[in-house]
Amino acid sequence: MSNENLVMEIINNLGLGFxxxxxxxxxxxxxxxxxxxxxxxxxPGLSPSIGVALMxxxxxxxxxxxxxxxxxxxxxxxxxxxxxxxxxxxTPGTPGAVATTFDGFELTKQGKPMHALMTxxxxxxxxxxxxxxxxxxxxxxLASLALSFESYExxxxxxxxxxxxxxxxxxxxxxxYIASLIGLLLVTIGFDTQLPFSRFTMGIPQLADGIExxxxxxxxxxxxxxxxxxxxxxxxxxxxxxxxxxxxxxxLPLNKLWKLRWLMLRSSVIGTLIGVIPGAGGTIxxxxxxxxxxxxxxxxxxxxxxxxxxxxxxxxxxxxxVGGALVPLLTLGIPGSxxxxxxxxxxxxxxxxxxxxxxxxxxxxxxxxFISLFFANLVMLALGLxxxxxxxxxxxxxxxxxxxxIIALSFIGSYFxxxxxxxxxxCLAFGxxxxxxKRGGYPTAPVILGLILGKMIEENLRLSLVKGDLxxxxxxxxxxxxLLLALVSFFLPIxxxxxxxxxx
Amino acid sequence: MRVYxxxxxxxxxxxxxxxxxxxxxxxRSEAYPNKPITIVVHSKPGSSIDLMSRxxxxxxxxxxxxxxIVENHPGTQGIVAMQYVMDKKPDGYTMLGVTKxxxxxxxxxxxxxxxxxxxxxxxxxxxxxAIITNNKSGLNTIRDVVSQANELNGKQVWIGPGTGxxxxxxxxxxxxxxxxxxxxxxxxxxxxxxLAMLRNEAPVYVGNPSDILGKxxxxxxxxxxxxxxxxxxxxxxxxxxxYDLDESMWRGFAxxxxxxxxxxxxxxxxxxxxxxxxxxxxxxxxxxxFPDYLESKTFSKKIDDEMSETIDALQKxxxxxxxxxxxxxxxxxxxxxxxxxxxxxxxxxIGFNRSRxxxxxxxxxxxxxxxxxxxxxxxxxxxxxGLNITSPALIPRLWSILxxxxxxxxxxxxxxxxxxxxxxxxxxxVAEILLxxxxxxxxxxxxxxxVSTPFFLLAGFYILKYRKWPVMFTYSIGFVLFxxxxxxxxxxxxxxxxxxxV
Lengths: 504, 502
Prior knowledge:
The complex is a heterodimer. Helix content of chain A is 76%, strand content 1%. Chain A contains 23 helices and two strands. By secondary structure, chain B is α/β, with parallel strands linked by helices. In chain B, strand 1 (37-41), helix 2 and strand 2 (68-72) form a beta-alpha-beta unit. Chains A and B meet through helix 2, helix 3, helix 6, helix 9 and strand 2 of A and helix 2, helix 3, helix 7, helix 11 and helix 12 of B.
């Protein structure tokens, strides 16, 4: 097929999709989906995939279009919503928002939460739109990218994700390494990746499946931060000056956002491409985008101290990954992420087989879904602008009232993932760990990084070992490229620091 | 402040109403059924058993007085869901979705739930195991697979999710029946295996017919069923090629043993009616499965037989070992506890002298101890020989050695540092908050979320030296009302009501 024909076909199909979307129910579903999604994202403990799963039963009675549109809208906006609490209270509402805390919460501490919130909202919208455009134009060639990734590339990607610790570590890299190794060790607890037995459980049955990730995340960030700031009596001072600062920085000059345009675009593309790779996921994309932003930035020293770039990059990547994750779902019938795995269930309920046949048999549906992504992004932007005013008011609330409520929210958030009080205990234990690390000057983010990437690294290294040929790590082009990138991104910050030490 | 007093009073009244509503008539006793029946499912929404249960719930609406509601309790391959049902009263209002994979789960996980704890109501559906190949591989029939296996002389690779899974046992059975030798490579999950198949990375994948849904490149070579599937009339069975293999992933329902007889009877009747409903049969065919209704007695017999078969197969595969040397678990747990106690005692004794130096020293000591602890445990692994795997000890050892090295490095850094005093922190406040948290944590399962949360919040505000009572009441009760509306009403997540009142 010539290029011209392909373009014509896409335009025709987009028209078809547009007309099948333009009914009251699907449009209403987009709005509902975005509202639910933002709420899911904001509440710690509810990740996008849990949000989509919770909404799934409600869609069984709907037509396929409304169901898909609703669930994707939830997925998309939950990825944005997670950043709100990351910025406001240092509690990533979703795993994808971990990287947003690095600079987002710093900005809040400086009294500029509105700057961070606006940047995150804009970057999320840009990411979502770029992801949708890439999905429409390049889903077929990208499918082959998704297919070309074997265990070697997954391993390389996991290692690449880990290298961000060297740019996170700050003055004392050893402490960063230790924190990440603790995460990596803790994630080996539970079911072995190849044998039916659980490692390191010490006879505790609830540990057989390993440490549930989200309670650990909430504990480490939310509770750890609260314990730490209670200890340093930040909350006992009257927050008058903070309030003044928030009032002063109520709006973000648009030219500051405009300066971030290329970074947002680039990060969106990174997010979409990594989102395409099944099982890699948006969270890794956010770390890689953050790392990329820092290493290409003109002012890398501001990262971790409240850089707008540090908020824009992970957020754009996170929402870009949504469009990416839909690529393998629609072209190969393979879920690209935990959320799209639930979407497969939704397709099957409506007797639709995910995969290439879907494009041929139901072009109206597929392209309607594509167009709905644009609408969902715009609705998200509009609601986000309204919401930001509300979030800032919450940030202004006295910490003495806010902290106990955050703790209670963390408890429910940990509870309802498996309806298990054991997970609440995990949350508490990680809260203590986070506090212990923080007061010792250890960064907590590398622990989470280890928890996220440890499984991926181990599973794929061991699968590659079983397959036998280790030279594939360097003979396969993608694997070699990613491993080289990992080397550079690990050693570059260290070398840079050696040669031009920044004195403050 | 007056406004807050008013709001607090209104919230309090609504809260009392909510408590009354939540705890009203929890102990009704009238004719069965008089309230919705819960189906507990062990995996996330959208999984096969979840979709099946939801379909049953939908069709059952025609035959059952009360609605059936599906609840997901994922975790530990079903143990979490089984335990959840075990913890409920045997009143017939909690039904468990069961599947064949539970057999291995129960054998492998040494949990206190046993197969004899359940009363198996009925089987509903059967997904035949299938041998799947890629069109491009040239393996179009089961004969092709066998001849390639013989050619490669044991080097043919079969893939699937998990070593010791149903699919793994199916592969072993196939090799046995077909008289071939092959290698199993564990791809961890269904989707990852299917991806590998789409890349034509391995010749044979053991899965279920629905795995090829929408994928033109994949082909089912044979299904392990008594007859062909109506929805896939071109796919032959193993029997047709002369191999006696009948293996399927069945899915049905069970109750806790000792459930009221009238409930058992009622639910059996409902499921029987569902099994013949055209809507149900259509669903089964759409999912490439057999509608396979078995009533309680035959179902239980089948489970008993398959249970002993599963134990045999796992034993033969060398997967029923004690993977950790006996007695060492307790020892390890004690070592962990001992180490942590020492750390906390030392911390309390010397960490409180506000010196960063001692704290850093203690912390690096703890990390060194953690690395040694993990490494020591990997020495206790007993790994069965003859499996195509890498050692489970490999990665943990790597991380613990690295942690050991970095911690020593860190220790040296700490020792080089001067003894710098730390800002005086409010450790007492943190300790108070922690105590409140601990009490809250213990109180939730007893008193329930809705009763214990306001107390915790009030205590929290108080500890942090907030003293405006009307505001405190407004926020604490308001938060509980908010969580009821958001979690229970909108997202349909049940918050614990507490053992004392239920």
